[in-house]
Specification:
The chain is 37% helix and 18% strand. The strands form three sheets. The chain has an eight-stranded parallel β-barrel, surrounded by six helices. Strand 9, helix 8 and strand 10 form a beta-alpha-beta unit. It is globular, with a radius of gyration of 20 Å.
Length: 383
């Protein structure tokens, strides 16, 4: 592996960047307000030796739950602010790192500038000795950057991240890292290489969003990590897999295996046509998921569509209202899950909302239609 050149930052007692070991982290998949379930997630990740455990906070109920969860763990905790940047000053005392998504800052307080909102988060972090992660996601890039770079979604991600780094630098805050994630492996590689070239000093958190279920999700993640970590890019990683809650520790195990393999030169060859087939994208589940049937649905979608494996189609299965709508826009067919309904889309266009019992037959009808339209007589061989 090439030597990493980033500066070192502190996340509680953990140090990342520079010559520090690459940290492996994961995220609780349960609703944070469900304290027993979330404590169990923390316990599972602790047993898997996670270096950082992330928990999502969406409202005051989650905040109260976080306070209780913190009493029972000494792990390094990160909090995901979701769409509510105002919670920063309330959660900062209970965690070691705050993650905010630049693409979500425009939701609240539209009379305030983005810089003012970032300064609010920075002040909370400064007052409580927290690190910050600027977390850019390909499916939820700030609309202003999307409009600026309509033909280069990767550049929109990189410019958003770089501009937010400049804001933090100008505010005198240096204890931060950046992530640039997408469900498209090539975009993840490209974005992180572009950013690293421009800001080689900033530690990077690597991940492929909505990588999906094993083994495909592991393969996608491995491709990105092998290309980046071997080039000296990446200071902490998260393997995002769609797994039952009790198996969440597998993300940590897989992450360490990939790092060990790269370190020892054990690379896995991937055929050039690996992506020229059915691609199922699914998120790893988190506290935003409003119906626990999500993971089962993702697994059912994979089983249902096995007959279509040879066709180059992308089906995205997303678990929440926060990332679901935007991060299914690029899929041929997208499903994003609400409490009682699953919203079905073709690209950015909605096709309707269906109950969890109704969605699979409807999905198969749409898959068959697309296969027939694109591949004609080939569809006749599908069974």
């Amino acid at each position: 592996m090439k030597t990493r050149k980033t500066r070192k930052i502190k996340i509680g007692r953990l140090e990342i960047g520079g010559d520090s070991p690459i940290a492996v982290q994961s995220m609780a998949a349960t609703q944070t307000r469900n304290i027993p379930a979330t404590r169990r997630q923390v316990e599972i990740l602790e047993k898997a030796h996670a270096d950082v455990i992330r928990i999502a906070i969406d409202d005051e109920r989650d905040l109260e739950a976080l306070k209780e969860i913190r009493k029972h763990t000494k792990s390094v905790l990160s909090v995901d602010l979701q769409e509510n940047y105002r919670l920063a000053e309330k959660v900062a005392a209970h965690v070691d790192k705050i993650r905010y998504n630049p693409g979500h800052l425009y939701h609240l307080d539209k009379d305030k500038t983005i810089r003012e909102k970032v300064e609010f988060i920075v002040n909370a972090a400064k007052d409580n000795d927290c690190a910050i992660r600027i977390g850019v996601n390909g499916g939820s890039v700030d609309p202003d950057y999307q409009a600026r770079y309509p033909d280069d979604s990767v550049e929109a991600m990189v410019r958003s991240a770089a501009d937010h780094c400049q804001i933090l630098d100008e505010l005198g805050f240096v204890n931060y890292c950046v992530s640039l994630k997408d469900s498209d492996v090539e975009k993840v590689i490209d974005a992180n290489k572009r950013f690293s070239k421009e800001r080689p000093d900033v530690p990077l958190h690597l991940g492929v969003t909505e990588a999906g279920m094993p083994p495909e999700g592991i393969i996608k993640t491995r491709i990105a990590f092998e290309q980046l970590i071997s080039a000296g890019i990446g200071d902490t990683i998260r393997v995002s897999l769609t797994l039952p809650n009790e198996e969440k520790g597998e993300e940590i195990t897989v992450g360490r295996q990939i790092i060990d393999d790269i370190r020892e030169g054990r690379f896995r060859s991937v055929p050039e046509n690996f992506n020229d087939r059915l691609n199922i994208i699914s998120c790893p589940s988190c506290s935003r998921v409003e119906n626990d049937k999500f993971v089962e649905l993702a697994q059912d979608v994979r089983e249902l569509t096995r007959y279509a494996e040879k066709y180059k189609l992308t089906i995205a299965v997303m678990g929440c209202r926060v990332n679901g709508p935007g991060e299914t826009d690029d899929a041929d067919l997208g499903l994003w899950c609400g409490p009682t309904k699953v919203n079905l889309k073709q690209g950015p266009e909605p096709l309707g909302a269906y109950s969890y019992d109704e969605i699979l037959p409807k999905l198969k009808t749409e898959v068959d239609r697309i296969i027939k339209e694109r591949f004609g007589k080939q569809q006749e061989t599908a069974v």
